[in-house]
Task: inverse folding
C-alpha cells in the first residue's frame, strides 16, 4: 500500500533562492522540450518526438549548460520530461475520444511549482533519524533543508517531491507500507447520498451539514480580487495582492480538506460497508449548451445558464470528488468496503413499495410516494436506495 505525506519545509534565505532557481531551470527544460516537439511536428514532416529521444539528449544539455542544468539531479530532469510526455499522451487520448484536446502549453516561472525525484537517494535524501530532533531533507544543489515533520513516516520512502505554494515550500513523500490491521468489525452498513443543502445524508436518517467554506469566504475573496485588479503589473503592491488572494484560496482549500477527512473518518470507524452514488462530477458541472433561436438567426434562447452556474459553484464548493477520494483511501487502510452504485432514480424510488415516479418527489426535501403514501426526507430515501443497490451488487460480486 502506498501512502503520501506532505510536510512544511523551513528553508533558509539561500536555500529558498536555490529552490526557486531549481524550479526555474526545470521550467526552462520543460518549455525547451515542448518547443522541440512542436518544431519537429510542424517543420519536419509531422515527426513525433518521444520521451526516450529527449532523455538521451540530457547529457549533452547538462554539459552545454552546467550553470543552469548541470547542477540539478539527472533523475529529476528525467521526471520533468516524463511529465511533458504524460501531458502529450493525455492530449492524444482526448483527441481520439473526441473531447476538447487542450494542447500542452508553455509554463511561466510562476506556473511551474513542482519538481519530482523518482527515487529516494537519487538526487535527494529523506533524513529522519530517531535520535535527531530536527528532520531534514537533502536536495542536490540546495543542501539539507529543515522539515516540520508533524507525524511519523511509516514504511520505506519511494519518491520525493518539492512543491511551492505561494511563499511556502513543502516536501511530499510517497512511502510503501505493509498491509495494516483492519479496524474491528462493527456489523454496520450504510448508504450515503451527497447533496447541496446537506453535505450528505445517510440511510440511518442522519445528516452532515454542508459547511460552504467557499461561500463564507466569497466576500473577502471578491474584495481581494478587486484590489488585485487595481494594482499595476509587476509592482510590489500587486505582488502583495496576489499573495493575499492565494492565502484566501489556500485557507478555503485546507478547510474543505479538513472537513472531508473528518467526515470520512467518522464513516469508516462506524461502518463496515459504505455505499455511495457513482457521481460523474465533471459532467454535472458543465455549462449548458447555447440554444440558437430558429426565428432570429444570430440570437439565442434562454438556457438557464445563470441558474446552472450557481449550482455548479455550489457543487464545486462542496468538494464531493475530494471527499470520495479520501473516503476510498481511508476505507482501504481500515479494511472497510466502499461500493459505488448507479445514481439514477435513487431519490424517486419508494423504499417501501418500489414505485418509481417523478411525482414521488414534489420538492427538493420531501418524498411522498403516490402509490403507498410513504413519506420521508428525499435525501434519506436516496441513501436507503443507494445502500440496497450496493448490497445487491456486493452479494452478486461475492457469489
Result:
Amino acid at each position: 500500500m502506498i501512502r503520501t505525506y506532505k510536510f512544511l519545509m523551513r528553508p533558509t534565505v539561500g536555500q529558498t533562492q536555490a529552490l526557486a532557481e531549481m524550479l526555474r531551470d526545470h521550467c526552462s527544460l520543460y518549455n525547451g522540450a515542448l518547443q522541440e516537439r512542436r518544431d519537429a511536428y510542424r517543420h519536419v514532416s509531422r515527426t513525433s518526438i518521444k520521451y526516450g529521444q529527449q532523455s538521451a539528449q540530457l547529457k549533452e544539455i547538462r554539459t552545454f549548460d552546467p550553470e543552469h542544468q548541470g547542477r540539478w539531479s539527472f533523475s529529476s530532469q528525467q521526471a520533468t520530461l516524463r511529465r511533458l510526455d504524460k501531458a502529450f499522451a493525455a492530449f492524444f487520448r482526448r483527441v481520439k475520444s473526441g473531447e476538447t484536446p487542450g494542447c500542452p502549453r508553455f509554463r511561466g516561472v510562476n506556473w511551474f511549482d513542482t519538481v519530482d525525484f523518482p527515487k529516494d537517494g537519487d538526487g535527494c535524501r529523506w533524513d529522519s533519524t530517531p535520535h535527531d530532533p530536527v528532520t531534514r531533507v537533502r536536495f542536490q544543489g540546495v543542501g539539507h533543508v529543515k522539515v516540520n515533520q508533524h507525524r511519523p513516516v511509516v514504511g520505506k520512502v519511494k519518491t520525493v517531491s518539492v512543491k511551492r505554494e505561494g511563499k511556502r515550500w513543502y516536501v511530499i513523500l510517497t512511502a510503501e507500507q505493509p498491509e495494516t490491521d483492519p479496524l474491528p468489525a462493527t456489523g454496520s452498513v450504510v448508504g450515503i447520498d451527497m447533496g447541496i443543502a446537506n453535505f450528505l445524508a445517510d440511510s440511518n436518517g442522519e445528516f452532515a451539514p454542508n459547511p460552504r467554506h467557499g461561500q463564507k469566504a466569497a466576500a473577502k475573496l471578491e474584495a481581494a480580487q478587486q484590489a488585485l485588479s487595481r494594482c499595476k503589473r509587476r509592482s510590489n503592491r500587486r505582488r502583495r495582492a496576489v499573495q493575499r488572494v492565494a492565502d484566501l484560496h489556500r485557507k478555503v482549500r485546507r478547510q474543505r480538506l479538513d472537513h472531508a477527512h473528518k467526515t470520512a473518518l467518522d464513516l469508516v470507524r462506524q461502518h463496515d460497508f459504505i455505499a455511495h452514488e457513482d457521481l460523474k462530477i465533471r459532467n454535472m458541472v458543465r455549462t449548458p449548451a447555447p440554444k440558437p433561436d430558429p426565428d432570429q438567426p444570430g440570437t439565442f434562447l434562454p438556457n438557464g445558464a445563470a441558474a446552472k452556474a450557481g449550482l455548479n459553484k455550489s457543487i464545486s464548493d462542496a468538494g464531493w470528488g475530494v471527499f470520495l477520494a479520501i473516503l476510498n483511501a481511508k476505507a482501504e487502510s481500515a479494511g472497510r468496503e466502499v461500493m459505488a452504485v448507479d445514481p439514477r432514480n435513487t431519490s424517486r424510488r419508494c423504499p417501501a413499495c418500489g414505485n418509481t415516479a417523478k411525482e414521488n418527489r414534489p420538492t427538493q426535501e420531501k418524498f411522498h410516494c403516490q402509490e403507498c403514501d410513504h413519506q420521508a426526507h428525499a435525501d434519506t430515501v436516496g441513501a436507503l436506495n443507494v445502500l440496497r443497490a450496493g448490497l445487491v451488487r456486493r452479494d452478486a460480486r461475492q457469489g
